[in-house]
Specification:
Layout (H helix, E strand, L loop, with lengths): L2 H4 L6 H15 L6 E2 L2 E2 L6 E4 H25 L4 H6 L7 H4 L11 E9 L2 E8 L6 H15 L10 H16 L7 E5 L4 H14 L5 E4 L3 E4 L2 E7 L5 E6 L1 E4 L3 H4 L10 H10 L4 E3 L2 H7 L2 H11 L6 H10 L3 E2 L10 E5 L9 E3 L5 E4 L10 E5 L5 E6 L2 E14 L2 E10 L8 E3 L1 E4 L1
Helix pairs in contact: 3-13
Length: 427
């Protein structure tokens, strides 16, 4: 029976959801519609106005240019500046590598709030963004099931062009590029699925997937181990590594015997013996301290063009490295390299805690202080009944160009348990 027939008006939510996601599970491309034993991907469809879609894409490209311009200066900065931005010392050499000064990263995602004061960027996920399969593959399937227009139609083609351009840049810089590996935690369904999807979309001939646990460092190379059955375990060299593994985590990685494997890998990157995707500039853009730097330069009226100052004022939020808001201003405290809402605290205008994540995974990091932008309320249908949540938008930036969008629904602090909400576009 077709999905369209299953999505009859009298079908229950559970029936509609199963009709949509069971075929996707069977394909093997998107298998994590439920995460941690809970519903993750919703079966409803949020209708996004075309003008809002165009505004998000316009903002993403403008902010991408601003980030790229700022990163060029950061990459030339003294170690003290890199340390102030919260970047680990082991990454300094890699961060200074420059391949394309016009784009901040190959694959990134800006997170936006649609507020009464306009579109506001909350952060830039520029090192290891996820939500890729949902935005570029699943969303179109859900829109087709409902007979509505997919805002992300045709966006997946950007990956092949982006990977080709990055590979060409590495070759022009003298890097070896014969052996390409895409890697992530193989036991993590979402990470492994996202990485395998990008491997297929990349169009790189001969590229293979390898689990992070199968990658070894020896001398001036890294290797991917592979079990060849009767032939035993083979080790294949890696020239170019796509890794869904954050650089700040890589900097801390050690073998079971305590050897600093991650630092060794970062040295190979800095020495030009290993190419990585996203490139090191993507990690420089990941730190939220960069938002504070951009806002500081904007406040001083320095560095940026008039057009760039206008974009910063329109789309960015006042962000600082210390709390300096008037007493009546609500603000958010975020770890500079935190992810999925962990370690985030919202303070009300009275100075009291309004909400906190309850997690302290990144509690030892420096913090940024950002003016609070309230996410709009939204009511959605779930397997457990109606849910009142907050709507967060993401807009991907691929090779400097705006691309697919994705909606998440959760609390005032969006975390890894927030729902994915498919969206269509309307005039």
């Amino acid at each position: 029976m077709s999905i369209a027939k299953m999505l009859r008006p009298d079908a229950s939510y559970a029936e509609r959801r199963e009709a949509i996601y069971e075929p996707l599970r069977q394909e093997g491309i998107f298998t994590w519609d439920c995460l941690y034993g809970q519903e993750y991907a919703l079966a409803g469809l949020h209708r996004l106005e075309r003008a809002q879609l165009e505004e998000m894409r316009k903002a993403a490209e403008a902010l991408g240019r601003i980030y790229a311009k700022t990163i060029r200066i950061v990459q030339q900065g003294e170690p003290a500046l890199l340390a102030e931005l919260g970047l680990p010392p082991a990454s300094f050499g890699a961060i200074r590598l420059r391949f394309d000064e016009e784009v901040p990263t190959l694959i990134g995602r800006f997170d936006f709030a649609l507020t009464p004061h306009g579109l506001k960027m909350l952060e830039f996920n520029s090192d290891t963004p996820t939500g890729i399969v949902e935005a570029f593959h699943v969303n179109g399937r859900v829109c087709a099931a409902y007979g509505e227009e997919d805002p992300n139609e045709g966006c997946s083609g950007a990956f092949r062009q982006a990977f080709k351009r990055m590979m060409d840049l590495y070759r022009e810089a003298g890097y070896a590029s014969e052996h390409v590996v895409f890697s992530s935690l193989d036991w993590h369904e979402e990470d492994a699925g996202t990485t395998r999807y990008l491997l297929r979309q990349s169009g790189i001939a001969g590229a293979e997937f390898a689990a992070l646990s199968d990658i070894r460092v020896e001398g001036d190379r890294i290797w991917a181990q592979r079990n060849d059955g009767d032939q035993g375990v083979a080790s294949n060299p890696i020239d170019v590594l796509y890794r869904l593994h954050a650089i700040e985590k890589l900097a801390e990685d050690r073998d079971t015997d305590g050897y600093p494997t991650g630092e060794h890998v970062l040295e190979l990157i800095a020495d030009g013996k290993l190419a990585i995707i996203n490139p090191p500039s993507g990690f420089a853009a990941q730190t939220k301290a960069l938002q504070a730097l951009i806002w500081n330069l904007h406040q001083a009226g320095e560095f940026y063009s008039e057009e760039e100052h206008e974009a910063i004022e329109a789309y960015m939020l006042p962000t600082f490295m210390e709390p300096c808001f008037p007493e009546v201003t609500p603000y958010v405290v975020k770890p500079i390299l935190g992810r999925e809402g962990s370690g985030v605290t919202i303070y009300a205008g009275s100075g009291e805690v309004a909400e906190e994540s309850g997690e302290d995974e990144y509690g030892d990091q420096p913090m940024v202080y950002q003016q609070y932008a309230e996410l709009p309320r939204i009511r959605v249908e779930t397997l457990t009944g109606p849910y009142e949540g907050r709507l967060l938008w993401g807009c991907f930036l691929i090779n400097g160009r705006s691309s697919a969008v994705i909606a998440r629904v959760g609390g005032s602090i969006t975390n890894n348990l927030s729902y994915y909400l498919p969206s269509s576009v309307i005039d």
